Amino acid sequence: MRPLLLPGAAAGVLAGYLLIPGVRATPGLFWALAGASAGVLAWTGWLAVSRHRSGEPLELDFLAIRPHWVQLLAQGTVLAWWGWFVPAVYEFAPFILAQLVLAVALEALFSWTRRGRHTLGFGPVPVVFSLNLFLWFHLDWFFFQLAMVVLVYVGKEFIQWRVGGRSRHIFNPSAFALAVASLALIATGTTGITLGVEIAQSQFVPPFIFLVIFLAALPGQLLFGVATMTMPAVLTIWGFSAAYFAVTGEYFFYDAYIPIAVFLGLHLLFTDPATSPRSELGRVLFAVLYGSGVVVSVFLLNAVGAPPFYDKLLPVPILNLMAPMLDRAAAALAPRLGVAWAAAKSAVPTRRRVATVGLWAAVFATLSLTGALGDNHPGQYYPFWRDACEAGSTRACDYTGVMQQSFCDRGSGWACNEFGILMAETDRDFRGAAGEFDRACRLGFAPGCANLEMLATGDERLIGDAGFARGRPPAGELPIVLRGSKGPVTERDPETLRVLGCERGWRELGCP
User: Fold this and answer.
1) pLDDT (tens digit, 0 to 9) for every residue of the chain, 512 residues total?
2) Cα separation of 400 and 407, whole Å?
3) pTM of the predicted model over 0.85
4) Spatial separation of the C-alpha atoms in residues 189 and 508, rounded to whole Å
5) How many helices (H) and strands (E) does the chain have?
6) Checking phi first, is residue 420 left (phi over 0); if not, alpha (psi -120 to 50) or beta?
7) Strand 160-163 to strand 117-120: parallel, antiparallel, or no bridges (unpaired)?
8) How far apart are CA 334 and CA 89, in angstroms?
9) 396 CB burial (10 A radius; 0-12, 13-18, 19+)
């Protein structure tokens, strides 16, 4: 019974969280951790009694499997870099640890209950890291964060098929849990209990984040040959985004050709070798379908009014189900294509893996140098969408309003006034416009006061003839309105800020 000290200790650690004042002050968090601790302890006790009665021993081994610790290092690097620039990540770290403790206990208990032996390793770490790179629940709803960890192991243990005479889990464990949680949140309209949007936005804040993700994933691509998935998927999404821009003059993903959260998923989510096709061509097909699935998911999510950040999560389980079919398709297509390596299995020679990664590095460098990937995408900044709105794009006007409202909420009277004008001129929503002009006036922006007084006349024809009052953003508001998706502007010198604004297309600043 000595191995049962492992889940017993896990239950104790989870119970220890209940002594922390902040946990006790958050009922949802307190009861989630209390329930997890009690559940692990009860399962451990039942297993001890049942094995004692049957006389069957429990075996415990340790084995550090290379895919697990390589993935751990890659994900840990991204989490560390992200957290260095976004303090909320490090603040959430104790709750990532709680999930990890639960995962260690669940993996062991499932193994002993079903097979009588367990091999302890690093496997729970990449599973938990993967969940937390893409979705957090508010602490009041932490039960669902822990429920995703449970769902990982339920899917891994009970949803299997036989491949090559061996039972294997069908779904990428963490992607399965993330997809189920996403569908539940979308169906119930409860996205607000998560920090999914904030995660997707804040991952773009750290500098050189595309490069960091690329470098972090590089060892795994060299060792396991998954560059044949990452590279085609990246090119598929970038190709669609570039074509969309060429046709419409707008960016499909608004502030990037490939959003950083999607780029992260292309490297550290869908590329699980155990649940993807085994053949090289099968993996290429898998990647193209994933990239296409991300794009289709955006359209579907927009159609149902759901946040688009679920786009990289939903396609993975569907494609996991298709993996054997894609291998069969690769075997059928290989002779027709006349490509010798097309039907080769994933255990390809080292030279071929190195050559593929070298090609992917060249592609990544090209996309970075041409601005397709990187920190300075024009779609981050207000002037691009303002110009597209003035050119007649309804979609651009909608996004312009989103940016103006965001600036207004951060304290820019100029942005409140501009948002009010947009509401009045585009939607003829004069009541809503009056509210925004009032906010602008209270923030000390004089044109907002003039527009509020004009609306008070109640004569919309006079408003149309006179036009609304506008003005330049005050110097004190420039750090707010010059902000892009990379996070706050820290510069405070007015002239330096004006030069930065001119570089980003702000004609409102009197730029030449």
Assistant:
1) 789 999 999 999 999 999 999 999 999 999 999 999 999 999 999 999 998 888 888 899 999 899 899 999 999 999 999 999 999 999 999 999 999 999 999 999 999 999 989 999 999 999 999 999 999 999 999 999 999 999 999 999 998 887 766 778 899 999 999 999 999 999 999 999 999 999 999 999 999 999 999 999 999 999 998 999 999 999 999 999 999 999 999 999 999 999 999 999 999 999 998 899 988 889 999 999 999 999 999 999 999 999 999 999 999 999 999 999 998 888 888 776 655 555 555 455 778 889 899 999 999 999 999 999 999 899 999 999 999 998 989 999 999 999 999 999 999 999 999 999 998 888 777 888 899 999 999 999 999 999 998 887 765 555 555 578 888 999 899 999 999 888 888 888 888 888 888 888 888 887 77
2) 11
3) yes
4) 39
5) 23, 4
6) alpha
7) unpaired
8) 45
9) buried
Length of the chain: 512
Tokens standing for 464? Answer: 């149309």
Residues 6+ apart with CB under 8 A from 97: none
Q: Hey, what are 244's tokens? A: 């969309």
